[in-house]
Amino acid sequence: MRLRKIPIDFLWEGLELSGDIYNDRGSVLLLKRGEVLTQDRLDKLSKFERGGYITTSEETYQEILNSGKAPRAALQRVYEEAVGYTALKNDVDSIFSVTRNASEINMEATETVTKDIFTKIKVLDFPKIFQCIDAPREMDENLQRHSLNVAFTNGVIGQWLKLPEPMIKKLVCAGLVHDIGKTKIPEEILNAPRRLTEEEFEIIKAHPVYSYELLWDNVDEDIRLAARHHHERLDGKGYPDQIAGDEISLLARITAISDVYDAMISQRSYKESMIPFDVLEKFKKGEFPGLDERLVDLFVKNMVANYRDVKVQMSDGRIGVVRYIPPNDLNHPIINCNHDVSQTDDKWYCVCIANQTGK
Ligand SMILES: [Fe+2]
User: Fold this and answer.
1) CA of residue 179 to ligand 1 center, whole Å
2) Domain boundary among 41, 70, 99
3) Centroid of ligand 1 to alpha carbon of 186 (angstroms)
4) Long-range contacts of 31-39 (CB under 8 A, 24+ apart)
5) Rounded average pLDDT over 325-347
6) pLDDT digits (tens, 9 = 90+) for 202-227
7) CA of residue 83 to ligand 1 center, whole Å
């Protein structure tokens, strides 16, 4: 019998096992079919299997996965492993820690990750990429997730703009390194679990210049400038150089949009995460002044088109499919849920993007 590996945190108290449970290697029978899991048994499993995995039959594995009861964070992790997002996240994490310790960017590693992302953008479907981008995240992985997400979003926008491949690669790379200057900001300010004081915000505002400086002279100047200018605004009200209009490159303008999108989607210490439809409505209403309006229009239009038919988790716990997003009411999409088609409102709304492969 073929056994499947499954993380222990997929199991829950009260689960009646439809199949036997074995250890990580499948060599020792731990629990028999028909047994009901108690918290005590779960604790023992975790203690016994330090790697955090057990094995079981394909049928039991599928049953657990499709029960809708496995913790969402655990499901998301497995999904991200399948898409290859986890490996990329770890690569980005190591690029950032090397930079933090050595004050130098490993460009070879950065270029390898850039190529990987570029390849994934070409072969992966939009919902798969955005299920990873839009996922709730832990505070301590914010910087690497954000960098990776901006790299992906930059690349996707580059494709929508039908830019030549070398340009899309530059966009992906710029997304990866745009915030690398944050490695020079003290962590107690960067991860402060509250709103920043004006003084602290001034310190944070130095990060685009640090990013620019950390990228050596031999790194493409377009990439360096995109990093330096991703907080500049067309009205001249951005930072650090307060340049305006045409002085801001296309790469920097695109990176600014990806940056704002991911910042809105993510949960920060001082704000809750938002769902994509709410963020897109804000973009459309012009709530982020100084962005390139033509690019914002293109971004919103394509995001809306691509979110059609994507699976979402609803506030009542059910899984629905986005059927239509009204152009003048982007944050109230029409959802098909168990053959019942309704528009979302304050009482019934989308909580997050659901696993695209099953429940
Ligand atoms: Fe930034």
Assistant:
1) 5
2) 70
3) 15
4) 37/11, 37/12, 37/13, 38/13, 39/13
5) 93
6) 999 999 999 999 998 779 999 999 99
7) 26
